[in-house]
From TrEMBL:
It comes from Mystacornis crossleyi. This is TAF1A polymerase. InterPro entries: SL1/TIF-IB_Component (IPR052669), TAF1A (IPR039495). Pfam families: TAF1_subA. It comes from the Eukaryota. Signal peptide: none annotated. GO terms for cellular component: RNA polymerase I transcription regulator complex. The gene is Taf1a. One of its GO terms (biological process) is transcription by RNA polymerase I.
Amino acid sequence: SSHEHKLNFRKSKEACLSYIQDALLQKQWKRAAEFLACYVESLEKDYSREHIGPSEMIWRVGTEILWHHSQSSMKEFNCFMEQMKTLGVKRYLKVCLEHVFHLLCNGQIDEAYQNLSLAESWRFGEQTAIQDKEMKLIEAYRGLLDYYSWSKQKNILLEHSEDGFSDLSVEQEMHGYFRKAAVNLKEIIKIPGVWDVFVKCLVDLLEFYGDHDEARQVLNEYAYNSKFPANPNAHVYLYQFLKRQGESKKSLISALKILHDIVPSHELMIDFNTMLQKSKKRKKRRLGLEVIFAALDYAGWKENAKAWSCLARQVKQIVTSEKHLDWIKQEWNSRKDWWPAFHFSRYLAKRNWQENKNLSCEKALVAGILLGKDCKYFKYVSHQGCKAQLKRFRMLKKFVNRHNPAYLRISG
């Protein structure tokens, strides 16, 4: 019967899709391609009107297979993408974008630019308005390639200027690329979103032509506009810009404070801690201790010698002056149950000693102050250092022994 035929047909399609999925998961690209061919062939016999799902599936799966298949070529990939563009106007711009990405990955810059220009001129009734955001992306990526061309011309111009020559035609061409890139890059960053690469390129353009006020405005908007999603990179770019402009430490600290709140494990926390430690304000020095303790809570920082050096230096200053031991105590109270095993085991002491003696020395000082002179980490490292007759480790041992009362106060 007709109903039974449709039921069996649907089951066979589902089975075919299951085989395709299995082949993809096992990276069996040839097998996946064979099943996809069967699936496409079966669709030609499908008289139902549900074409949206299958056509998108063919596009996505087919792209993945062609990208990884050992016998596929760029010519075949281009042909496939052109076919996919005709499957449905609703996905036309998305397919165009993906095609451009693959062209760029293969170094075909001119072809990618040509495809973006063709997509930009695409119009299809009401679909043009519906796909406005996709069109903005098309324009933005064309702006990115204009920036790339501008950057190439800039390098040529800089090379000529070093030789004492000036090339007016290169300068004019370069300025043309600047205008086209700036227009499209400015448009995309008006839309709330994560636009890191576009923002960086636009700021580079503006800075080169000395428009620092507009560059600052772009970065402030990107970092502080509440309509945009929280983005650590926005604050990194702002901080780097302020640093290039020689802004005050107050401005730099303000930018990094927000970054610390979002990502306490960011690599710039060492710069942040260093600035805070040098401050004359007690509140900022207190924050500096909090920042470096928070960074060392993360596994990626466990063997960061600079971070341990920052913590050791500040702990040493506090213990020597016998002021603000309560700062260390407050930070240590929430960590004393897990930091000893996380940072100060005998196993880590042995490994750190073998791999990086500077790191082990800084960690040993912190361990000795926080856990006392009987701490496993401190005992192992100081013993090895003294055994090797290294003056630095003898001084370390004397310092910790002399300030053992500080440990008693910190430990409560």
